[in-house]
Design a protein that fits this description.
With about 160 residues, the chain is mainly β. It is built from no helices and 12 strands. The strands form 3 sheets. A 5-stranded antiparallel beta sheet has the order 5-6-7-8-12, with no helix packed on it.
């Protein structure tokens, strides 16, 4: 793909979810990124990420099958909550995974920021930090793989 054909504020990529394409970024302080695949059948979105600190997206083989997944450490603009998404290609469909955190031990669920999550690419694991009942200390849960994720077909 030549630079002349790229939309404004975009950068090319190769091999994300088995596609080549570009990521388009909007915003200066808080940024929203859309990953678009460019194929013989057209251009279409395959993932998104967002946050204050620039892209924190990583291509990693989390399931040992087909294509590498795309992990996106995101940060919401309203409350600053941090979360992680996993995008996975299944055939010609992209699925989005979110952490299932319903059974955190002793979790004090006082709202959106009672839990934060991220992918650590250096250690190859997901880190969940959450409020605990009866203390001001946060607990940390580290997990590998996709066992704690719930997936559903992603719709942009």
């Amino acid at each position: 793909m030549s630079k002349q054909t790229l939309p404004e504020n975009s950068v090319p990529f190769t091999g994300i979810l088995g596609y080549d394409g570009y990521v388009q970024t909007e915003g200066a302080i808080w940024q929203h990124r859309i990953y678009c695949a460019v194929t013989d059948h057209g251009t279409f979105p395959i993932a998104e990420s967002f946050g204050f600190e620039g892209p924190q997206d990583f291509s990693a083989d989390l399931d040992g099958k087909d294509w590498k997944e795309l992990t996106a450490n995101v940060q919401y603009g309203g409350d600053g909550r941090r979360d992680v998404f996993v995008y996975q290609r299944r055939g010609d469909t992209v699925w989005k995974g979110v952490l299932d955190l319903r059974d955190l031990p002793n979790h004090d669920n006082w709202g959106a920021n009672s839990v934060t999550a991220e992918y650590d690419p250096e250690k190859g694991l997901f880190r969940v930090r959450y409020a605990q009942k009866g203390t001001k200390e946060f607990a940390v849960l580290e997990t590998r793989g996709l066992g704690r994720f719930r997936f559903f077909p992603w719709k942009p």
